[in-house]
Amino acid sequence: MRASPKNSKNGPPRLWLWILGLVMGSVITVGAGIGMQISDRRPFCAGCHIMNEAAVTHKISAHAELACNECHAPHNLAEKLPFKAVAGTKDLYLNTFEKIEMPLKAGESTRQVVNTNCKACHHVTNTTVAAMDVKGLCTGCHRNVQHMRMKPVSTRSVGDV
Amino acid sequence: SDVGELNPPVYKTKLPADEIRNSAFKNEFPLQYGYYERNNETQVMTEYNGSVNYNKHNNADPLPEGYKHAQPYLKNLWLGYPFSYEYRSARGHTYAVEDFLKIDRINRYDEKGGLPGTCWNCKGPKMLEWVKGKGDDFWAVDVNAMRDKLDVKDHTIGCANCHEPETMELRLYSVPLQDYLKSQGKDFKQLARNEKRALVCGQCHVEYYFLDKSFGPAKKPKFPWDNGFDPEDMFTYYQDQGECRVKGFEGNFVDWTHPVSKTPMLKAQHPEYETWINGTHGAAGVVCADCHMAYVRTDDKKKISSHWWTSPLKDPELRACRQCHSDKTPEFLKTRVLFTQKKTFDQLLIAQEISVKAHEAVRLALEYTGEKALDYENLVIAAQQMIRKGQFFWDMISAENSVGFHNPAKALDTLASSQQFSQKAVDLACEATKFGISKDLAKDIKQIVPPILKHSRKLQQDPEHMKTHEWFKYIPVLPAANQVWDGQKKL
Amino acid sequence: SDVGELNPPVYKTKLPADEIRNSAFKNEFPLQYGYYERNNETQVMTEYNGSVNYNKHNNADPLPEGYKHAQPYLKNLWLGYPFSYEYRSARGHTYAVEDFLKIDRINRYDEKGGLPGTCWNCKGPKMLEWVKGKGDDFWAVDVNAMRDKLDVKDHTIGCANCHEPETMELRLYSVPLQDYLKSQGKDFKQLARNEKRALVCGQCHVEYYFLDKSFGPAKKPKFPWDNGFDPEDMFTYYQDQGECRVKGFEGNFVDWTHPVSKTPMLKAQHPEYETWINGTHGAAGVVCADCHMAYVRTDDKKKISSHWWTSPLKDPELRACRQCHSDKTPEFLKTRVLFTQKKTFDQLLIAQEISVKAHEAVRLALEYTGEKALDYENLVIAAQQMIRKGQFFWDMISAENSVGFHNPAKALDTLASSQQFSQKAVDLACEATKFGISKDLAKDIKQIVPPILKHSRKLQQDPEHMKTHEWFKYIPVLPAANQVWDGQKKL
Ligand SMILES: [Ca+2]
Ligand SMILES: [Ca+2]
User: Does pTM surpass 0.80?
Assistant: First the structure.
C-alpha cells in the first residue's frame, strides 16, 4: 500500500469534488468575482490529481503567475461563462465516471481558446510581424508553452496518483 | 493549497527485504502486476520489431519461424560460437527464463552447458540469492547447474530486479552495473530519479563480457565502458583486457576465434543503453521508461507506470510518444521511425555481407598456395584485425534492438565504418596473395558464400548436414549425443 | 483587451510592380533593410560553416585562404570542369553578384565566359527583366554578355526575388521553380504561408541542371525532381534526360566528362531544399525561414523577420532555435548539431577519397597493357557508371551546406552508399585488368593521387604548373591569354 497520501487527494467517493462543482456552478450563476477567480487558478484546478502534471509544469513556467483560465477560458465574460460551465462539467463528469486515456489531449476548442488568449496578451509585440499564424498555433514555435512537453516525463509527473 | 513538489510514491509493503518471487508482489500491486502480465503477449509485430521470437537469421520463412527483415548471414558470421546455433528475436520479460532454458546456445546434450553461470545474470532476480550465497565463486559455475533451481515464471525478470521489496524504491540488483557506478564514484541512491529510470534497464540492455581470470574473478560479468559508450571506445577497451596470445592480438579480450578466418573475434550484445545515451532522445534526457513504461490509467483512474516493456509502436495510437509529441499524429511519428529504420536495416544488410566477404578473403589467403607478398604474414594479421573491428561495429548495430531509432546518426555512422573496416580486410587479404585470390572474390557474395540457413548443436552431430556448406569443414562434426536437458528436466 | 485575429500586415507601397533595385525598398522598410545589410558580415565562423569565403578544397592554409574542415580532393574530383578552378564557401546574399563576377569558373580570359546566361539565374532580381526581355532565348546567351549590365549591390539577391514590390507578398521570381510547381498542378498563391517560407529559398538552394537542346530551350534551368527529392531519385532522373552518346551512358544527362577516367559525370549543387524536405525538421514543417529568418526585435520593440540569412549558430544564444527548443541551452543544441556534423564530415572525407581512387583505378584500367579480362570493355563501363553514381551521391552531401544537419539520417546513408558505389568502381576496374592494377592501388590514397592544391585558369596556361600533378596530363595546357574581364570592367 501507498505509505504517504501526499499526492493522492482522490478518496474513492470524491465527495469534495462534487461540492466544489456545486460551488463552481453557483459561482457561475451568481457570476460573482471571488468564486470565479478561485475557480480560475492553479490551486483549484490542481485539486484534481489528473490536472497535476499541467499544474506542476505551469508552476515552473514563465507564465506561473497567470491563472489557468487566463489561457484556458475565453477572456470575454459572455463567452467565458458558458465555456467554463461546459468545460467544468465535462471535466468533473469524466473525472468521476469515465476511463481517462493517457496522455491527456487538448480538445480543439481548448486549442482555439488558448491560442486566442496568447494573441490577446501578446498583441503588442506581434502586430507588426508578418506571419505569427504560419504554424496555425502560436505553440507551433513556442512549443514549451504547451506545459513543457519535451521535458523528460519524470520532471513532470509521478506514478500512482 | 497549491501543487507541491513531485514526490514519487513511497510504499511500505508487507514483503520481506529479500523477497524475489514475482507472485508475491501481485496482491500488493495488482495494477502494475496486471500490466506486467501483458508481457505474455507474443504475437504482435511492427515493421522491424515486435514480440514474435522468430529466428533472426531466417528471412526465407514466414512467422513464427522467420521474418522478412532478418539478416541471413548470422550463422556464418558467428560460426564456431554458440550464437550460430540459435538466436531469436527478444520477447517479453515473462519469457526470459523459459527462452533461456530452451535456447540451443547452451549445451543441452551434456550435463554441462559449456557456458558460465553468468549467463543467468540477466534472466531474473534469483541472481540476488545466488550471488549472495556464493559470492564471486558463482560466476564460473556451469550454467546447467542452476537449470532446475528456479521457477520459470516466478523467477523470471521481475519486481525484485528493479525494486526494493519493502519500499518499492528503484534499486539495482546487477553486480556489473553496481561495479561500474562505483568506478565512477557514483551512488545509485543519490542519482536523479530520471537517471534511475534508465539505469534499471542499463542493468541488462547493455554490451557485456565475462572476465578472463587474470583480470579478476573468472567469468564475472563486466561492462566495457571505461573509455566511453561508442563502438570505437569499447573496441579500444577490449584491446588490452584479455589473455589472447595469437600474434597481432596479444592481450586482446576474445569471445571466440572464427574458424574460417582464424580471427579472434568479439561478440556484441544488445547495447541499447550505450546507443541511446548520446542519441537524440538520450542526450535530451528522455529515458527508457518514458517510452517503454509510459504512464497509463487503469480503470479505477489511477495512473501507473506501464510494466509492459515492449515496442511502443505496437500501440496504434503511439500514446507513449505522444506524451511529448502531442502535436504529431501517430502515422507521422511511425513514418519518421521507419525513415531511420529502413536506412539502418539496409546498411546493416550490406555491412553483414562485406563482413562475410572478409572472412572468406582471409580464408582464401590462409590457404593460398600461389606466390605470396613479402609481408604476407603481417598483411593477413592486419586483415584479421580489420575483420574483428568491422564485425564488432556491425554487431553493435545489429545486436541493438531499435534498428537505429535510439540513435540514428550513430547507427548509420557506425555501419559505414563497419563497411570500411571489413572492406579493408578484403583488400589486405588480396594484397597478401598478390591479388591471386581477387578473382574468386569478384562475384556476388551469395554465390561465393551462401548463407547458412540451418544449423544447430543437433545438426552438427550429423555428418550429412556438415557437408551442406563449405564453411562447415572448419568446425568439427560433434559426436552423436542424446539430449540430456529438456528445459528444467534432466532426461 | 480582446484581440481575436492577428492579421498579418498588408502593405501598400509606393513602389512600381517592376521595381528590382534593393535600394528602392530602403525607405519603405528600414527595419528589414537594416537587417538585410548585416549580410555584409563576412568574418564570423562556426565549427563547419560561417561567412568567410575560403577555398573549399584548401585544408592546409588558415582563413581566409583555407579552413581546417576543407575537402582536399575537390580539384581532383572536378578536373576538367570549371568547378576545379575555384569553388568557395558561400557568404551573404549581398555578395552574390560581386563573388560571381570574380569567380574563376567563368572565363575572364576571353570575351566569352564559356557558360550560359543561366548562371545569372540565382544571383539577383535582374533575371526578371532579362527573362521578360528575351524569353527562353536568354538562357543560351554567353554569361559575360551581362557582366556590365547590372549594379553590383543594387541588383544582388534582394527584395524583388521574394516579394511583390507593391504589396510585399511573397512571390517566386524563379522560372525553374515556377515550372516545377506547374508540373505538379500547384499554384504558389494558393499554398500555405508555411510552404511559401521554404519555397522562396527553394528558388535557388536546390540542385539544378541546364537543358540539353533536344529537351527544350537550350540551357534553360531545370530542377531534376520528377522522381522525388532523394539522391537515388535524381540520379535515376538524369539517366534519360540528356544527349550523351558514350557507350553505357546513352541518353544520360552529363555535366562534363572526367578526363582522367573518361567518365560522363554529374555535378550536384547546393541541394538544401531537397535535403531538408524529408529531414527531421522539414518533415515536421519547420521551414528555412524559421531558422534562417527568425523573428527579431528591433530597438523600438517591433518584431520583424530577420533578413540576415546566415548560419543560425553564429548567434551565441541560438535564438532562432530556441523559440522551439526553449527547454534546451544553446550549448546543448550546438553539441547536438556537431554530433551530426562531425560524423557527416568524417564520412564525407572518406567518400571523397574512395571516389578519387575510383577515377585512378579506371585510369589505370584504361591504360592497362597487360592481359585483360574477357569482358574488359563492359567491366570498365560498369566501373565508370559506378564512378558517376558514387561521386554524385558524395556531392549531394558535399555540396549541401549544412554538413548533414538538415537531414542527419539521409546524409549518412547517402555517404555510405557513395562509398559503396565508388568501391564497386574500384573492384570492377581491377577485375577488368585481371587485377593487374590492384597492386598500384594498394597504398595510401594520398600517395597514389596527391590532392591538387593549386589550380586555376591562369595556372592552366602555365606549362610548369601543368607538370606538378600526374592528372594534369589529361587536360590541355591552355594558350597563354591575358585577362579580358576584371569584374565588370573590360580590360
Ligand atoms: Ca560482448
Ligand atoms: Ca547539377
Answer: yes
